[in-house]
Amino acid sequence: MAALAGFMFTFALHQQAALGHTALKAGLCSAPVAVGFGLSSLHWHRLPGRLHRILPALAGALLGGGYLLLGLMLGGGADIGAGPLVEMAALGLVAGCAYSPLVARALAGVAPGDAADASGVLVTVIQLGQVIGVAVLGSVFLGQVDLPAPAAESGEALRTALLLDAAAVLVAAGFAARGRRVAR
């Protein structure tokens, strides 16, 4: 969640302060990520059962690659066209397939009497991750560009943030893969 929240924050700053998008247009350009995430979060369990255990690691690796690709697409300050919008929808779909099985796995062994406490801890950890993602990626982004800025300059700062995002997600995918091996 740190990666997703950090991306959404830096992407919104880039759109509004460098590309000149209104808040409405920036939100609409970010919508494919949210829609993809929501859809896959609700339906990942419909994938073949043999994929459920490897899904967090596999989807995490794909997500890392997706952040790298998006960084290449937007790094020069290009406006948001059809290609990046499709890429962001795919990112959302993959992110939901990475995060939702992890949440399900985290809560699977919780006794019904402990469900409220476990849910509270999980939500707190997710929110903490989001705050850390916004703080770290926002600091990296804002450390490279003074907004408002030319689109190319802001695009390079966004690319750097997306590279860091990709690295963090790939490390997390490695931990998910390792956790899967340890659980067996």
Kindly summarize this structure in a few lines:
This protein has 184 residues and is mainly alpha-helical.
Could you please describe the fold and organization of this structure?
The two termini are 26 Å apart. The chain has a single domain, classed as Growth Hormone, Chain: A (Up-down Bundle). The mean pLDDT is 94. It has 184 residues and is mostly helical. The chain is globular. The protein is built from 7 helices and no strands. Helices cover 82% and strands 0% of the residues.
Shape: globular
Please report the distance between the alpha carbons of the first and last residues: 26 Å
Task: Please describe the biggest sheet, giving its number of strands, its sense, and whether it closes into a barrel.
Answer: none
The run of helices and strands is HHHHHHH
The mean pLDDT is 94
How much strand?
under 5%
Number of domains: 1
Query: What is CATH's topology name?
Result: Growth Hormone, Chain: A
SSE-based structural type: mainly alpha
What is the radius of gyration?
A: 17 Å
Query: Under the CATH scheme, which class?
Result: Mainly Alpha
Uncertain parts:
none
> Helix share of residues?
over 70%
